[in-house]
Design a protein that fits this description.
The protein is α/β, with parallel strands linked by helices and 500 residues long. The protein has three domains: 178 residues, 3-Layer(aba) Sandwich (Rossmann fold); 117 residues, AICAR transformylase, duplication domain (Cytidine Deaminase, domain 2); 121 residues, 3-Layer(aba) Sandwich (Cytidine Deaminase, domain 2), CATH 3.40.140.20. It is built from 17 helices and 21 strands. The strands form five sheets. The protein has a six-stranded mixed beta sheet, with helices on both faces. The protein has a six-stranded mixed beta sheet with strand order 16-21-20-19-17-18, sandwiched between helices.
Length: 500
Amino acid sequence: MRALISVYDKTGLIPFARGLHELGVELVSSASTAAALTEAGLTVTTVEDVTGSPEMLGGRVKTLHPKIHGGILADRGDDTHRADLESHGIAPFDLVVSNLYPFFDSPDIETIDIGGPAMTRAAAKNHAWVGVVTSPDQYGSVLGELQADGALSTKTRSALALEAFARTAAYDAAIVEWLQAGEALPRHIVVPLVRAEEELRYGENPHQEAARYRAVGRASWWDDVAQHSGLALSYLNLYDTDAAWRLVHDLGEQPTCAVIKHANPCGVAVAGDLATAYQRALECDERSAFGGIVALNRPVDAATVEKMVAGPQADVVIAPGYAPGALDALRAKRKNTRLLSSLELPEPIGRDFRQLSGGFLVQAEHHFGTVRADWRVVTTAKPTDAQWIDAELAWRVGGHVKSNSIVLVKDGQAVGIGAGQQNRVEAGEIAAKKAAGRATGGACASDAFFPFPDGIEAAGAAGVAVVVQPGGAMRDDANIERADELGLAMVFTSERHFLH
């Protein structure tokens, strides 16, 4: 048996190569790999000895040679291939061990590997005869099978080939992205994905299969999530929990709770302590909170547990951690609730993809581009300091609510949320109905401009003191006039936050 070993990442290499050597496998290696194996006391045939040609061009050319690729690509079931090997004095390889230059970590012209992908793809193509090992994570299982059976099975070689092609595809995708760096919407978008380990119960509905995929070479905060109890997660559990985690980490440093139902906030609050934040978030719309997602930006303490077990059943609770005894107390009262923890913050998405027939719509990810210093008070009345705080919270929460949306906030608590309506007035009426008078003196945020004064009137009817909206409507003057008549302060942000 003959193995070609040429790796950049030498993690676990020596024990693996030693195991191959003990099985009588001839080791052929290039440059630094050969040096590492020789230093470990292993007998190595260098690539130069095989090809009769020295490495050149600073190492860019070393394995690109017929005596290397002929040995990898030969179909040993083809008489003409065997004749070619014999006439040219080429010995076949049974195993190719190759990992690539670290382009993912250090993108540069010199970290674009050429020989590595060529060897990897050649071996993967000829997996009927050749095993291709592309990661140190595979060393143990490959060596174990060789030790047990003396050869790799057809199934194993096929599985290794699949991983090899997936790896080179992701590698090429990273290069394509790098060559278009700085382009928000480049000509080519190649997104390599790999299925995550956890199994989802089902998709959006029980008859649909589903899985989570993550971008190759890119970490996700989901990879760090620990599940401490409850049923297996479903597609919607992940979708809604992601929305909740993003919202709760978008509202500053105070203790914060967000309750999400069907990807929409149904309760949000900031407070001086976590238990109060939870209780006030719940009070926004306790009926909708049943079966929802509860996200907290502080470890769950005993006082918060007490409030939670007295409140409605949640499908998921996620927090940075749990105080001693908190998990046991929640498990005892909420057996089916999925209790999750993560210390990771939600990472930027970069580009937002939405599938449509035959392809995707792609846009830059949603973000808040303006801050209070950029906003403009357009009415005679001006917000007080307390009203400014409520207006900022309402505006921020509104950017996480499906359009059309209206959010009412008073004293750091969302008291009414109207989401996903076909017209803005009804969104306001829903928010006001849920607020039930609690918005008096608070703030109203609209994710887009009010096209007519009736939206301003609905906000006034809810009792708010300040309205925050993008502005930019044809009837802005009429809206401002109506706000002045009602004694409302109104702020234009000059930024819309539709979310569909």
